[in-house]
Design a protein that fits this description.
Length: 468
Amino acid sequence: MQIIHHGAVNGVTGSCHQLDINPQHPSSYLIDCGLFQGAETAGQNSADQLQIDFNIDNIKALIVTHCHIDHVGRIPYLLAAGFNQPIYATTATAALLPLVIEDALKVGVTRDKKLIQACLNQLNKLIVPIDYNQWVSLPINLNNATQPVRQIKLKFKPAGHILGSAYVELDLKGPSYKHRVVFSGDLGATYAPLLASPKSPYRADTLVIESTYGDKNHQGRKDRSKQLKGIIEKAVNDNGVVLIPAFSIGRTQELLYEFEHIIYRNQHNPMWQNIDIIVDSPMAANFTQQYRAFKDLWDKEAKQKLSQGRHPLDFEQLTTIDSHQDHLAVINYLDSVNKPAIIIAASGMCTGGRISHYLSRFLAKATTDVLFVGYQAQGTTGRDIQKYGPRGGYVYIDEQRIDIKAKIHTFSGYSAHADQHNLINFVKRMHHKPKHIRIVHGDTEAKQALANEYQKLLPNTEIEIGKE
């Protein structure tokens, strides 16, 4: 057995891992096929970033852990390279994936409707939806009776990261061989709203695990909610706008859930009953509808609110902006009336999208607050604003220098990623612990810090940091 990495080893983007078995008559399986972002694209033109530069002849299946773009963004290029094998995903991810790929093609590749539809048609032919906790046999080459692995099975387990997200269990079996490989995908933080926290697998012989926050622990949920409320109230007092760059899938829905909670608990506060909360993203609106459609996957707390007649993702103060014309009109309106509002828009790392237009207009205003609620990769505009904003620095957006006078806030507590404590517990709570752990999907410091903690926990386990 061999695991090869085609991304997410020099940072947190471009997740793509290849599991090879039976070297004489090989069968290979891809786990995710994501897009590179930020500093990880440095020195590469767009074609180099997107090309499938590995052999796909023996790849028998693609397994998708979840549909964030850094895990699925290279799928169109995989299809263009001739891939025509099954694409396994959870039922919810299978519903979301075509929406994500369509948007990625429109934004980054082409507006040609025929080309986009051709790609989507091929994608839809290959997608195989699988329910959580169900074993499924994967295709395998069986040309030689002496092959050590005669069967490989897949099971998706809830990862609690975004709707449909999963970690992957792969069981390899032969006449005298048995081995379980677990790929974590992106694990969710415990006590996050909407989705249940991930539970550890019973066993893993080999574990490939993310380390986005391998060196940090998140702020507690009560503290972050109190801090969020305080920042909003201060921003309203000086009539400023609050800009929240957020991923369309996951973070946006969690924020809406949190704002509904604050509004509900402040029913006698006119400010909270009148504040406008604007989701300026057609994609986010589409995914919010999907979250509502798959409410059977929500956690107990969220389901209880529904039973009380509350609507955590659809409340009175919420406005959704669809067309580009309306998007520009909202920016002009907020700029002219000096009126407070909360704006949630993509992209989550400020690398384009509608949030960039808001930042261009409002980042230089002292009454503006910018709230970062998710990880900002090195080399992204979001990371630059985080780094230079508190120093009174500047950033370039669309080749225009903008002095940062807005107040910059970062809440790691709203991250959809597990923190160090969660990542350690994921391993600690396994009944049969891994003999081999490979750490991926993190900055250098985060990976090394997590490796150190795992070595303390499991001194006899081989701990390594993934390399290309």
